[in-house]
Specification:
single chain; alpha/beta; Rossmann fold; 2 domains; 7-stranded parallel beta sheet; 20% strand
Length: 373
């Protein structure tokens, strides 16, 4: 099959999911004919994606979250949506033009904002599969943070809008849950880069920190100044800094670099992260305890953190107070064996569901209950 990706470019998670899916598809004999990536106006997609996706990459401008003082700024996010509306309309036309030129057999969307709108406006006959951890929040058995009915309703509306007219939604999950085939909602293991399987984890005496936005570094520095004896290596997205910024003897900041990050993940004592789904999954695979710090006013990350705690990944905190992690570590129970068993079932599940839409094979083209097992 000739498969085209639509990828949300904000953060690292959806990009790494697409890379992993591409690896799985090529191993099964399919072709990734292109990757269309949406990102904020003026924001650069990390180079690791173009280096590893092994397909032509097409860029377009897309709505994104605006951060302020370490948290999500809802007002500025909505204002940006209105301000750049003409640009976003052009992006939608560009997506349609590119898809019409490429003529893929299947589109796989990694929570790209335009996907559902594209299906509605252009009435495409090309089947689309939507992939994201966010679709798990649609599941009735998913546990949300307390007093979050409105936030859950809003994110589920966004998830439904992003998957309008989609043939199937694949909900990535830390752990196994029942699928809902009647609602086209299939629970599947995480999508992780195959390189994670080549790492032999060891434990060195440093904490690894990954943040979705460099503004969060102020909290890290504040804690570090009070605890300079704890060695920290931090990854951020600050473009105007060198590849490695040595703050002092025990604190360094690194520009996002995939091989370097994975190497440090394999050797760290524990991971501190802003509750991104893939970062937590990679740590669980390697048996690394995690402290998850949801970005303020970011409901998806609050859900990730709670779900991660339920799944045994580690502990959560509202701030980058790493003392919480220090107190937690003696009580951590390694979940890597259970997690790996679930993860290694993933390749077959992804291929079975994707090949059900292969029109060239009348047997695979019949979507039956077996597809959802």
């Amino acid at each position: 099959m000739r498969i085209l990706f639509l990828v949300q470019g904000e953060g690292r998670g959806h990009l790494t999911q697409a890379i992993s899916m591409g690896q799985i598809l090529r191993t099964a004999g399919h072709e990734v004919v292109g990757a269309m990536v949406g990102s904020a106006v003026g924001r650069q997609i990390p180079s690791f994606f173009t280096d590893q996706i092994q397909a032509p990459v097409h860029y377009f401008n897309a709505p994104s979250i605006v951060y302020n003082g370490g948290g999500m700024n809802t007002k500025r996010t909505l204002l940006g949506l209105v301000t750049h509306l003409p640009t976003y309309i052009k992006s939608l036309h560009y997506i349609h033009k590119t898809i019409r030129e490429i003529q893929p057999d299947l589109i796989i969307s990694f929570y790209e904002t335009y996907s559902g709108l594209y299906n509605i406006l252009y009435r495409t006959q090309i089947p689309m599969i939507c992939v994201a951890h966010q679709y798990l929040i649609l599941h009735p058995d998913f546990t949300s943070p307390k007093n979050s009915w409105l936030s859950r309703t809003l994110i589920n509306l966004n998830s439904k809008a992003a998957s309008w007219k989609a043939s199937q939604k694949l909900a990535l999950s830390f752990r196994e849950m029942a699928s809902l085939p009647d609602e086209k909602l299939i629970v599947v293991p995480p999508l992780l880069r195959q390189e994670i399987q080549d790492i032999f984890p060891v434990k060195n005496d440093f904490f690894l920190v990954y943040m979705t936005h460099h503004s969060l570094s102020a909290q890290i520095i504040a804690w570090h100044l009070a605890h300079p004896e704890v060695r920290l290596h931090c990854f951020w997205d600050k473009a105007d800094e060198p590849d490695e910024l040595v703050y002092d003897d025990t604190l360094s900041f690194h520009r996002i670099n995939s091989p370097k990050y994975l190497k440090m993940l394999g050797t760290c004592r524990a991971l501190v992260t802003t509750a991104g789904f893939e970062s937590v999954c990679e740590a669980m695979y390697l048996g690394k305890p995690v402290m998850m710090v949801p970005v303020p006013n970011h409901f998806e990350q609050e859900c990730n953190a709670l779900d991660g705690v339920i799944s045994g990944a580690g502990v959560t905190s509202k701030t980058f107070d790493l003392s919480v992690l220090l107190d937690y570590l003696p009580h951590h129970v390694d979940q890597s064996a259970k997690f790996r068993n679930w993860y290694h079932r993933g390749n077959a599940m992804f291929i079975n569901n994707i090949e059900a839409f292969d029109k060239s094979n009348p047997i695979k083209n019949r979507v039956t209950s077996a597809t959802f097992s």
